[in-house]
Specification:
Elements lengths: L2 H9 L12 E8 L4 E6 L2 E9 L2 E8 L1 H11 L3 E10 L2 E8 L11 H22 L6 H9 L3 H37 L12 H29 L10 H7 L9 H8 L3 E3 L6 E3 L1 H16 L11 E5 L7 E7 L1 E6 H22 L27
Antiparallel strand pairs: 1-2, 1-5, 2-3, 3-4, 5-6, 7-8, 9-10, 10-11
């Protein structure tokens, strides 16, 4: 057999190994406009993308304080930290939103409400699980799913807020990738560019407003339950407003915060209540993009472009219009709403009176441990 025949036989082998990423990690700080900073070590950060010799690159050496001043000078808003990496081929990712008014961002609003639900669940299910001798999967599932209304609604809020995190994370990634591509292609003079990946942006914008509306409505049901109402019948913010009366004001800390912020206010018809402030704006946006038309249906929304941020032509941001070329950038609008939502839900979790600390699992909490055989090696 000659080399050519041997090579041909090797090329038709029945399988190919799928490569796995080597172990590693990254820590980034995301801003609006598709700009982000990557941590090199300690408090040393590089900005990306930066145009260097006509190509996109990571460049500079900044502290976090310097990054903050630079971002403010360019009109960019910090959104979140992202810690991701690979361990033995398995990918992990942690998106940590920057909560306005907080200095420690280790736990976000979604984390606090998840912890509340977990703590409530531990109190409810502990004795029932311990009473099981040799529990089946279905028996354990029945107990875990038999949640009290406040536990269930706290979990629903946590899941919806995490959905918000994911939507914002994906839009930030889309903006960053588009900005890098425009730099690499030299399309930096206002050229409008679109592509098939735009559908990802449209889907995540839609998802953001769906999750935002869901979190708002689960909050309304949670407050209704605290007021003695049936949360299955008061399942939206609008229905909560309809049920409110003057006697309810001052009876619940969460409701008091909404009223103090002008998010629930008395309507022109005395004795009746309605949404106000940015919660009303959020509701209008949600209704637009879930009931009237999807984002991306307007011609001006179907392409994006790079906008210069520095006189030396090194720094740019990505822009995608909402409604018209002169309207808001859609991600800027979403980030404004996102920061308001996570700040409110963070404050409400702290004011709820429930334990929002991280649950610690002990040996007693393990109901069953089973290691299945490796299907490949067995």
């Amino acid at each position: 057999m000659n080399n050519k025949e041997g090579q041909a036989k090797e090329d038709v082998s029945p399988f190919r190994w799928i490569p796995r990423q080597r172990d590693g990690e990254s820590f980034s700080l995301h801003f609006t406009g598709g700009v982000r900073a990557a941590c090199i070590k300690g408090d040393q950060w590089v900005l990306e993308p930066v145009l260097v010799q006509g190509r996109p690159a990571s460049n500079g050496s900044f502290t976090r304080s310097e990054l903050g001043r630079l971002a403010r000078s360019m009109g960019l808003t910090p959104i979140a930290f992202q810690h991701s990496g690979w361990n033995r081929g398995a990918y992990y990712n942690n998106w940590v939103p920057i909560t306005p008014g907080q200095s420690n961002h280790m736990l976000g609003a979604a984390d606090l409400w998840r912890n509340i639900a977990s703590r409530l669940g531990a109190t409810r299910k502990g004795s029932r699980l311990n009473a099981l001798g040799s529990p089946t999967h279905d028996e354990v599932a029945t107990i875990l799913d038999d949640q009290s209304p406040d536990e269930r609604l706290a979990q629903f809020m946590a899941l919806s807020l995490r959905g918000l995190d994911i939507s914002v994370e994906e839009i930030a990634a889309f903006y960053h990738d588009q900005l890098v591509d425009l730099m690499a292609a030299g399309q930096l003079n206002g050229e409008r560019v679109s592509g098939t990946l735009d559908q990802l942006l449209f889907a995540h914008v839609h998802s953001f407003f769906l999750h935002a509306g869901a979190a708002r409505d689960y909050l309304a049901s949670f407050i209704a339950y605290r007021l003695g109402e049936d949360p299955t019948r008061v399942d939206s913010f609008a229905l909560l407003c309809k049920r409110l009366r003057s006697r309810h004001m001052g009876s619940d800390r969460l409701l008091d915060i909404l009223a103090a912020e002008g998010l629930i206010l008395e309507s022109n018809q005395k004795g009746h209540w309605e949404s106000g402030g940015w919660i009303k704006e959020l509701g209008d946006l949600r209704n637009t993009f879930t009931h009237r038309r999807p984002y991306g249906s307007r011609f001006s929304e179907q392409a994006g472009w790079a906008v210069p941020l520095s006189p030396n032509g090194q720094l740019f941001r990505y822009r995608r219009s909402l409604l018209s070329d002169n309207g808001d950038d859609v991600f800027d609008l979403i980030v404004r709403q996102y920061r308001l939502i996570i700040e409110l839900f963070y404050r409400l979790a702290k004011a709820s009176g429930f334990d929002d600390s991280i649950s610690v699992i002990t040996d007693e909490d393990i109901i069953e441990f089973r290691k299945d055989a490796d299907p490949i090696s067995s």
